[in-house]
Amino acid sequence: MVRQYKQQAYQESLKKANEGFIHPVLTCVRLTRACNLICDYCSELYVKAGPDLGFDDWKNVTDIAYNLGNRDIVLSGGEPLLKEFLVDLVRYTA
Question: What does pTM read for this prediction?
């Protein structure tokens, strides 16, 4: 469940970024919440999330971040190595 105020803050930030008022220094994206490990300290197992984005969607995300002036993108997870397109996405993003 997304709280209304968080959604409004996100929409406001996105609007300002698209207008050129915000330039991200670092973008960290969570490719998936799925993980094949069971680490004691991890909370990913307890977070409900929707379906993962596909390769073309992630290419679009990285294009948006790049066009906003970002040159530092971190791909994380869950376990990002579970995504079959990870190598292709790293190559595209680089």
Answer: 0.70
